[in-house]
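Case 108 in the screening queue. Each case pairs one protein sequence with one candidate compound; here the compound is 2BA. For every case the pipeline is the same: read the inputs, emit a complex structure as tokens, and attach any notable structural observations.

Predict complex for case 108.
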Amino acid sequence: MKLVVAIVQDYDAARILQVLLDHEFRVTQISTTGGFLRAGNTTFLIGVRELRVRMLLELIEANCKQRSELYLPGGPVDYEEWTPPEEIFVKVGGATLFILNVDRFERF
Ligand code: 2BA
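Case 108 output:
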């Protein structure tokens, strides 16, 4: 079994969730915040049999889009030396995925 952690843009989240449910994936949705833009995004945790991982990734890819977002400086002063000093556009998404091995899965 694998655990897929998928970070997607809020714009795409409702559509992706619906498609995954339609295909009988079990999903946990978490509201998250991107560290760089400090804007909301959505993280899905999806436990999935190995056989279905490819289908899962195809469904996510088909339902998320890359977009340009405006980065505004002005985060915590401690981070200033690592972040751009001025406004820039960055490309965000479609999706950032981590695919982890699951040692054990139980439901009680
Ligand atoms: P954010 O951290 O808000 O990043 C939004 C977008 O800003 C990123 O899009 C990337 O294009 C750009 N970006 C991030 N850090 C940057 C930097 N130091 N300098 C210049 N541009 C930078 P994506 O790569 O598509 O990432 C979308 C979201 O996925 C991220 O939102 C973050 O929440 C998550 N993410 C991406 N890579 C991650 C990682 N290695 N670990 C954990 N979360 C990650």
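Case 108 observations:
- The helical segments are 10-22, 53-62.
- The mean pLDDT is 93.
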